[in-house]
Specification:
Elements lengths: L11 E2 L1 H8 L3 H10 L10 E2 L2 H13 L4 H9 L5 H7 L5 E5 H7 L7 H8 L9 E3 H17 L3 H28 L4 H6 L4 H45 L11 E7 L2 H8 L1 H21 L3 E5 L3 E6 L2 H17 L5 E7 L3 E3 L2 E3 L1 H12 L5 E4 L3 H6 L4 E7 L8 E6 L5
Parallel strand pairs: 8-11
Antiparallel strand pairs: 1-2, 3-4, 5-7, 5-8, 6-7, 9-10, 11-13, 12-13
Length: about 400
């Protein structure tokens, strides 16, 4: 399915063509016609809008909802298959099956099942009719990564990044839409007319699609420009134009204290609200100090900064913001050193050290390694000795320092 109009071709489908494009049998389509779930044109042909209607009934059947029960729901007015045709349209078919398309990729065809799985999608059956948008997207995806590193693992990593990102966006957006009463039935219960009740659902998909295109371009610009700046800085150091930075990158873990107990006492919904607020505050604090949120951890957040000074100032401000937002008290651990960056995530000893230090911190406390005292002193950041701690999995005890939370 796509936002491009499949209606532009003006095609009328036979029952066999409808079944093929909806990935089912003519007999099943006949059963839908007999039940009144879909309608044919007077000449027995079908408009292309019937494709998403049939696909929805198939999804419902897979979920254990048989046709008789579905028709009962439809007759009650609680749902109309016409909504589906208006929410999505179908891209033009290419005239090829999935098997034909796979053959066109040559030796890379064997990787398609794994690529689809990494995208989070079911592998199409060999006889499925392919559509223009899908063929173009998959072909361009494979061609791009083949130019860079023509290895199966490369395709899987790239597909997984895209699939997980988009799936999370779509799932979370739809969850919010449902929670706040966006679906037509919820809108109808508020006294809106059928047309008014359908309007939010009609707008959701195109608005999200438009937003993602714009947002992707903005994030791409930020990422590419940032990497170009880093490249130029490294080049200047290599050519003796500038001095090599004295500080390594820093990782911070900021966790809400007693989050598990909070979930039990206040309920999952309240705990989720706290986690969402933490994310918003963390992203704002990170941006102010050249940092970024690496990932959310349910009751906490992992952040990455270009220096220990940026990290401490950002986390100190974040701890203050958490208190002002009346969230549960937070605690944090920060470490600096070499990092392994892979697929948007960060790994290595520095990450493990920061996590272990955070685990030692008490509510309202920021701990760092004493080995970072020099850069902190130079930056005018006050700290006090926090003693020695044996941290799990890290061998020798680590000398710790407690950051003064007073903002300069």
């Amino acid at each position: 399915m796509t936002l491009e109009s499949g209606q532009a071709s003006g095609r009328a489908l036979t029952i066999e063509e409808l079944a093929r494009e909806a990935e089912t049998t003519p007999e099943y389509v006949g059963a839908l016609l007999a039940a009144g779930a879909i309608q044919a044109n007077p000449d027995g042909s079908h408009d292309i809008e019937n494709v998403p209607r049939v696909r929805l009934t198939l999804a419902l059947a897979d979920g254990g909802i048989d046709l008789d029960d579905l028709m009962t729901v439809i007759r009650s007015g609680a749902m109309q298959l016409d909504w589906v045709a208006r929410l999505w349209t179908v891209a033009r078919p290419t005239g090829r099956t999935f098997a034909d398309f796979a053959d066109s990729l040559g030796g890379r065809a064997s990787q398609l099942p794994a690529i689809y799985a990494a995208f989070g999608l079911a592998v199409p059956p060999p006889g499925m009719a392919m559509r223009e948008d899908e063929e173009e997207a998959i072909t361009d995806f494979v061609d791009l990564w083949a130019m860079i590193d023509d290895e199966p693992e490369t395709f899987l990593r790239a597909a997984r990044i895209a699939g997980e990102g988009v799936r999370r966006i779509q799932g979370a957006t739809q969850d919010l839409f449902d929670e706040l009463g966006g679906p037509p039935r919820s809108q109808s219960e508020r006294g809106k007319s059928p047309e008014e009740a359908l309007r939010p659902a009609m707008r959701l998909s195109p608005v999200v699609a438009q937003l993602l295109v714009w947002l992707q371009k903005r994030h791409q610009e930020n990422e590419v420009f940032g990497r170009i700046v880093s490249y130029v800085e490294r080049t200047m150091v290599e050519q003796g134009i500038a001095e090599r930075p004295a500080e390594a990158q820093a990782i911070a873990f900021v966790d809400l204290s007693s989050y598990t107990e909070l979930t039990v006492e206040a309920g999952d919904e309240r705990a989720a609200q706290f986690a969402t607020s933490l994310q918003t505050l963390a992203e704002s604090s990170a941006r102010a100090y050249r940092g970024r949120v690496v990932k959310l951890l349910g009751d906490g957040v992992m952040l990455r900064y270009p220096s220990i000074r940026d990290a401490v100032r950002s986390v100190r401000g974040l701890m203050t913001a958490i208190g002002e937002a009346e969230l549960p008290a937070a605690h944090a651990g920060i470490a600096a050193g070499p990092l392994v960056v892979r697929d948007g995530d960060v790994y290595g000893h520095t990450v493990n050290l920061a996590a272990r230090i955070a685990g030692r911190a008490q509510p309202g406390e920021i701990l760092v390694g004493r080995d970072l005292a020099g850069p902190l002193d130079e930056a005018g950041i006050r700290w006090e000795d926090a003693g020695e701690a044996g941290l799990k999995g890290l061998g020798a005890p680590v000398q710790l320092a407690r950051i003064d939370l007073t903002i300069d």
